[in-house]
Amino acid sequence: MKVIASAGREDIAMVYIGESPDGNLVECVESLQPPLPRNKKWVLLVSTMYGCPVGCKMCDAGGYYQGKPSKDDILDQIDFLVQQRYPDRIIPCEQWKIQFARMGEPALNSAVLSVLEELPLRYHAPGLMPSLSTIAPRGAERFFERLIEIKSAQYNQGNFQFQFSIHTTDENLRAELIPVRKWSFAEMAAYGERFYSPSDRKITLNFALSQNMPVDPVVLKNHFDPERFLIKITPLNPTYRALENQLSSYIDPNRQADDDPLIQSLRHAGYQVIVSIGEQEENQIGSNCGQYIKRHLSAEHPIPDGYTYSVHDCSPV
Questions:
Q1: Which end of the chain is more exposed for a tag (fewer CB within 10 A), N or C?
Q2: Contact, 107 vs 143, CB < 8 A?
């Protein structure tokens, strides 16, 4: 991978635009979680597709799709980020999270499975924790079956984070937000029951929550056991797609959310609820979930709340 551009701050997050040998563009990110230093927690986000065919209404990465990176193409992103900090491939971080979540739906690329098998052999990293977030696309059943096998064999002591991206409990609105064929809640729950073992982290049900997108505890309890599933609610990050589709965040990142009636109702239903609000500077960098630097560079009219950092040309002279 040849890095051609970057944006960000070393002490918060850096986004890199890379070019594959075939000329396809990809983005990857490294970030910290202040005030934690890098040796406590280091997070990488890598792309599993060149663009994305899904087209979620809040995500800027869905504007085009040019195919699937190979195992080596995905590992190249990780290698690039690692070699800048730990060229000997010894990563001394207490938690080294690799999120397959920058660009693309990971369950639609079987190369992700090969990467997951390779990671423990490629790096000396006691804190390694892959994180895979999926919309559960229909047709990816073989991927998910193999994922259970790999997780059980190589990441079976709570060292794997698995997440379903749901965004609302209203099935009709969910179909609008994520306009592809996907598993029902019943199918997701049944898979989660098979995926989960007592030594695992709970499976996350993620809601990048927009205004007027209901989250009904009764619907969730009908399918998802609080002993195996937890709820994560995040702000809707500023993206061009969200603005175009008139979506606004339910969570105000500048306001304490613990006393919110929705959060309280979910906790009353027995769920562990995480309200995940990251560094707001990441919105300006363009490193948060749903953001995509290439989309910003092609925009005629920049949005006001994100992507304010300059993109630096890294191409060799």
A1: C
A2: yes
Residues 6+ apart with CB under 8 A from 213: 167, 168, 170, 173, 177, 207, 250
Give the angle 3-78-37 at the CA atoms, nearest 5°.
100
pLDDT band (50, 70, 90) for residue 254: confident
Q: Tens of pLDDT along 184-194? A: 999 999 999 99
Spatial contact of 213 and 264, defined as CB atoms under 8 Å apart: no
For 174, phi and psi rounded to 5 degrees?
-60, -40
Q: Is 197 strand, coil or helix?
A: coil
CA–CA separation, 7 and 17 (whole Å) = 9
What burial class does residue 17 get, using C-beta atoms within 10 Å of its C-beta: 0-12 exposed, 13-18 middle, 19+ buried?
A: buried
| pTM (global) more than 0.85 | yes
Q: Which residues pair with 258 in a beta bridge?
A: none
Q: Which domains, ranges and CATH numbers included, belong to the chain?
A: 2-313 (3.20.20.70)
